[in-house]
User: Fold these one by one.
Assistant:
Number 1:
Amino acid sequence: MHLPKALSSATTVTVTVRAFARYAEILGLEETKLELAEPATVGDAVKLLRKSVPNGHLLPERPLVAVNLEHVLVEAPLRNGDELALLPPLAGG
Amino acid sequence: MRFVTHRPIDVLGLLTTVTGPELGGTVLFVGSVRRGDGDGPVEAIEYSAYEDMLEAEFEKIMAEAAAQWPGSRVAGMHRVGRVPVGESSVAIAAAAPHRADAFAACRYAIEEAKKRLPVWKKEIFEDGSAAWREGDQPEAGIKPKIA
């Protein structure tokens, strides 16, 4: 599933978004590509998903997120080719 | 050794990966699926994970423990998939020259694992229904560890 561009101008970054567990159920997807205007943050990606994916508004504004396998805060920047993961509240053990 | 397993955890096998002739104390923590006291009797928990991140994050936890308790060794396993009541879902083994450090390193590893590992669980009840069982959402998010 490819989502619409956030903006048609300027340079953009394309990231892979992965959703897990309950968030994958809410969004009806496990993986998608997202194109964002540069400079982009994780928060920009979350905002776009909340707006453009069916049921996206059910995602929290500040979900737990990881970029390239590392926990980050939503203020973290996104670069071309990054893998952004949306993590429901963790429940290991 | 991989941290994630899709099969029952061999806890004694895990223990032998950390023991050694210089390490006088070994601690083993095993977490198991319990019947529960929530929405009804639980038959099993279906664990899912972001496996690549789980491996990377547990590597970091092991390195942090090794740095804090020099000479210690920590290893662990987390099972994913359907785990029936009574079976182990997670195990952490820690060995150190003396017992205080072995207990501390084991405690550190399991507490950090609970806070940081990308694992989720769905409780499967005896009547066949199922529900996500999530932890608390940390308000500020999880800050990246500076290596």
Number 2:
Amino acid sequence: MKNEMTGDDYPVEIVSLTKYYGNVTGIRDINFGVGRREIFGLIGPDGAGKTTLLRILATLILPDSGKALVEGLDAVRDFRKVRRIIGYMPGSFSLYGDLTVKENLNFFAAVFNTTIDENYHLISPIYSHIERFAGRRAADLSGGMKQKLALSCALVHHPRLLFLDEPNTGVDAVSRNQLWEMLFELRDSGITIIVSTPYMDEAQKCDRVALMQEGAIMTIDSPESIVDRYPGSLYQVRTSRMASLSEDLEALDDSASAHRFGDSVHFSIRDDKDILERTRRHLCDRNHSDIEIERIKPSIEDSFIKLMTGEAAQGE
Amino acid sequence: MKILIEVIKKEFLHIIRDPRTLIIILGIPVAQILLFGYVITNEIKDAGIAIYDKSGDHVTARLTGKILSSGYFHLVRNISSVEEIDQSFQSGNIREVVVFGEEFAEKLGRGEAAPVQIITDASEPNTARLMENYTLGIINSFSRELYPGSAVRQPVSVPVRMLFNPELKSVFMFVPGVMALLLTLISAMITSLSITREKEQGTMEMLLVSPFRPFHLILGKVLPYVIISLINAVVIIILANTVFGLPVRGNLVLLLAECLLFVTTALSMGIFISTITGSQLVAMMISMVGLMMPTMLLSGFIYPIRNMPRILQLVTNIIPARWFIVIIKSVMIKGTGFGAVMAESAVLAGMTLLFLGFSVLNFNQRLQ
């Protein structure tokens, strides 16, 4: 990893970054680099350390050890310079609820010594959606509109990097897609983006993702490679007795794992040519009927669960 | 500079968007000054007395009339025996008994001294002392009326003059004190809440990731409230002047300038509080409860500083209100110029710079 991180091509470089909150691990020994014009996703459940990582990059908290470099600037020592070149959108709504949309945007533009007009072209794809509410107080906006305003405020000074902490939490589906369209545009205009999300389906939209769990990174790769590297085969199974299906499938052999996914169970097992037949027989023995088994392509979520259970098994 | 102006503009927007808070901030001083004005008074008005007149002649009748027509006393009952004196005090509504000796008019006619005894309820010592003085005053002026030449017989005559407040009105004492107290508490409270509010709302997180400097935020939050606090000061002065008749003898511009200085000190103290606390609740506790007692007890508002133990006298030096009370009394009541309060003003200015400086140094540029 380290030898990759020489040269200028990594606007963000993180080296063995560690942060504790008292005895609780925030993040431990995180290493990665983010390339220029890349959307880098931090994917993981609550408590995985996504916010901690982003806050260190945004110079808001100090790491206990390790280094975070933003465009070659140390996020601890050169925090003032870093603050000039990044845009940051915190996880919770962080604008002035008693000020109007326009006043919020004006204020953040002015604090960065710029004006809305100067960078209007940059924010217009997203700001145009809320411009007609310019006179409304920010507190009275809906979740999607708040998100758009927060993003506009984070972008109004034309940052070189953009850090977004769960921008789509509590936001409607249409607004989510609009946000992603906007992020693609920003990336193509040359802005490096790090975005965290707990939603696995959003991971697919990133150029590369880091799957995080309990403060550590389990794997970093493009979503396609992560899926391609899925060990074994994945099947979607439905039977008459869904309640005990997961348990019964896992009893098949020790490489088997099964998880409920909506109205079916995703069943993962090492490759084997007569596996379908064996599974069918095994389920029949356990009084399942109407058995449907279909081989499917794993999703990021399947990979995540596989990695997660793998780590847990290693831990034991 | 541009950032500072923007922060000030934003603060003004916060203020006008929240008219309820503004009304409270501007309304508290009016309510408080009126309350203090009518409640804290150490003058005697209409105190209940009893008269034990052993002679019952025309002189004692005239003297009784004088006492009762003064406005300070009203007669609850006439008594006719020594036992009744104790009973009168125990009944609770009588705080003084005046006893005229026997053969009052005859003794005066013979050129002898006619005895009057004043018995007061000293379970409230200050009131007892005041009532005694008021009664003596009435009796003395009565005897001078009867015998205009009698002053000659007094070997030492003591003409007393009370300067600046000849009637010893209590407003002269409480207005400067209440003004200092209210301005300290309200000013410190509004600024102590303002930075902690940004922390609680999460707006600090967004604000920190920008090129602003701590002094932008700190000055930007103090300056708008200077105007509001100054309005408070002016309202208090107007009320003191019109409702309670406190004169403004000194230069009005100087008085306002000193008020401006003092509210800036108090606002800076508040901003300092908000840099050391994380929540609005804690900030409020410190700025209200934490400042109230020291300001009331150690500023010289209620208890004279020179009567305190040496160590406490030293402690009073760090209370901003202590200096402001001296300034206000000098400028408003004595009518002195700036020269007389220069030292006190310098102390306040120094405190302001210290609070602002510490706030800038202490301002956390990160979330932790």
